[in-house]
Amino acid sequence: MGEVYRATDTRLGRDVAIKVLSSSLTKDSERLARFEQEARTVAALNHPNILGIHDIGDYEGAPFLVSELLEGQTLRQRILEGPIPTRRAIEYALGIAQGLAAAHDKGIVHRDLKPENVFITRDGRVKILDFGLAKLLRDEGSLETATTLTMGNPSTMPGVVMGTIGYMSPEQVRGEVADGRSDIFSFGVVLYEMLTGRRAFKKDTAAETMTAILKDEPPELTETGWQGPLALQKILSRCLEKSPERRFQSASDLAFAIEALSGTGISPTAAAAAIKPSFDARRWLLFGAAGLGGLALGAALAWALRPAAKPVPTFERLSFDRGTVIHGRYLSDGKTVVYSGVLRGGVPDTYVIREDYPASVSVGLGGAMVLSVSKQDQLAVLVRPHFWGQYVWEGTLARVPMGDTAPRELLENVSAADWSPNGNDLAVIDRKNDKWQVEYPIGKVLLTTDNWLSDLRVSPDGKRLALFRHPAGSKDDRGVVVLFDRDGKQKVISQEWEALEGLAWSADGREVWYSAAESGDQYCLRASTLEGKNRVVYCGTSGTRLHDITATGRALVSTQAGRFTTAVIQHGSKDEHDLYGMGSSINPRLSPDGSEVISTDISEHGGSDYLVYAQKTAGGPPVRIGEGGYGTDISDDGKWVLVVLPGETEGKVQVIPVGAGESKTLRWEGFQVSFANWFPDNQHILLFGGPVGQNVGLYMSDRDGAAPKLLVKDAPGWADVMPDGENLLLMENNTLLQHSIKDGAEKKLRTLQAGELPVDWAAEPGHLFTQMVRPTQVEIDKIDLNSDKRENWQMFEPSDQQGSLLNVLQVSITPDGRWMMINYHDELGQFYGSDSLR
């Protein structure tokens, strides 16, 4: 239809694209009408997944439009390189669906969706192009009454076939009216091609292709060699239904289903309480943070198969940038959002999202994090923040007017703060001498406690405080909602929840709203009255975190889409082999020869909370080898897995074969077990546990279930059996100690760097692999325990970062250092606003 040029907008100093209708076509009234139609259509849309139009005009008889300039490649160019990995295809599909939803919301149907009309920018964003065949529904998008076209092109009346053969819906092929569900069919065709590299309905002739669209079904994804979640196949099948009534009834519903599928939909800390060892051991605590990854697939499948219904209440998406959201608040206008987060693999910073400009713009605070906003738009922020645990950050409290970039520092060691209604005073949670304090105003201590506290908010009348109180001596996010008056009197107004995250007062001050989970990751919005009566406000298919509520009742919430990856990398290589299907695993362990990985899924499956799997690193699906407990270690010969079965009064450890063989269950009455490791002889077992009611220590048993023998009374932060089988390696703080099993004698070996953790034993005697996690990288070193010698073994950086800080859950390395397995988590979050939560 025209020619496209790269140009410079000299007024705003930006590069743009100019599309010019050639002079030979300006005499073609139909082409001219379609060109003008496209300009009006796209100009009516303002969405990150749709090409933006800046201007339109006519120069010496040549019509032109000015759009944003895109750098990257079309989806067609990408597909020509081969099938797109499932996880990346889901990300692209989500962007396309969200763009279509925005268009359909304006009553605009694309009608020519195909890989050529989808653009992938260099930073991975998806943009829908070419609305030249778009049509406008008469009544702003009604699917029932759309019978005519109103954008000025008579050739697009019913009975005329419009679109691209191979991507048209059945109703387009028949020349019938095409509404938004037609785009959903085309979307399904594009998604099929992304996943398989093959066209869904490609035949030798155009007539045969159109017949196939009307009558045939494309080959199942599994028949093409594709391996991925069943839920995605269900979503695709529903998009490709021949009858529009059987497809998703809106692109919004489609986007919601894909968004649930694009990650676990949970916070990485939400399931930390699923397994709660009472000792601070890196390996055995980290696996608890990995969470219930399988739930999102079930949620997506349930959404895909549910009867079509318009969701109530309604939510408006406010953010579109790739990253993690931490804290968000409305400014005084009740529309502008200021929030702290991590975007595009960077570091925490504070951003603003305006109603007329949805892109996140830094407010220039140099990494400070927002905690609260006063009625005068004065920000309470944390400067020099550092991550404490769960979703809590600590730093120095400061205040700064919105728009200023020089915060005034007020108080150190603060983790939460909230302004009084008049904007004059601040309530804070801070720590002094390992005690948690509540001050309101600053300087007046209302509470000092060993329990960790979070999510402090002041009531609309300024007379009360609400916060979460969590267990002492841990970072467990279980807890209750507590009220305080200004004299420090306390009142618990909720039951104990399995997890809590996000709190705000209702607009009238009669209730406290918060996000809580009864189990796992199912964060629902709940409310408690001042008298302690509880109710559910909203419970969706994935966790919803509450951030703020305005005086008019507008709620600010976020959803989190977490991704767990188990990647196998060969030493010296940057190429990841992602063990698909193991991405939500906890505590994955690599066998010494690098051929096998064992892991545990703690989602609920038919009544079992734990399923243990083994998977070949060379490829193939995971094989279930046990259930009811979590796998902790694989023997040096790679044949046997230890599985701990949790129990209140009886410790159980299963010895399960990876291949052929019989399982054996070891039992110790009155003795609890939290974790277990093999000795190098593949016969003895190191137990982390102890008699019921006592502290966790280190004990030795064997595969015959001998009575546990005490080795170390109080288990340190990290411990393992040394390769000689005669000593333990203990880590206390950052110091590594050699502990003799025979006589208990200890010898200091060396001190690790701050943040450095042991990983696995190297083949050379006295050598150990360690890890150091950076914001976007993992540094693997090999150290000599008997000297200061250190070798930088490998730097790992995920090839497909979603945009958040890297959260490494587990690293495992073979003794020869040839193979490395990294289990990591990253997370995307988006903000939504709602005026209809009640």
Structure explained in plain terms:
The chain is mainly β and 838 residues long. Helices cover 14% and strands 41% of the residues. It has 11 helices and 54 strands. The strands form 13 sheets. It has a 7-stranded antiparallel beta sheet, with no helix packed on it. Strands 10, 30, 31, 32, 53 and 54 form a 6-stranded antiparallel beta sheet that branches. Strands 1-2-4-3 form a 4-stranded antiparallel beta sheet, with helices on one face. A hairpin with a 5-residue loop joins strand 20 and strand 21. Helix 4 (86-105) runs antiparallel to helix 6. The longest helix is centred in the first third of the chain and has 20 residues, at 86-105. It is globular, with a radius of gyration of 29 Å. Mean pLDDT is 82; it is low at 138-161, 263-305, 307-311 and 604-608.
Strand residues, percent: 35-45%
Largest sheet properties: 7 strands, antiparallel
Mean pLDDT: 82
Distance between the termini: 50 Å
Tally of separate helices: 11
Helix content bin: 10-25%
What overall form do the CA principal axes indicate? globular
Strand order of the largest sheet: 15-16-17-18-19-20-21
Total number of strands: 54
Radius of gyration: 29 Å
Give descriptors for this structure:
single chain, 838 residues, mainly beta, seven-stranded antiparallel β-sheet, 41% strand
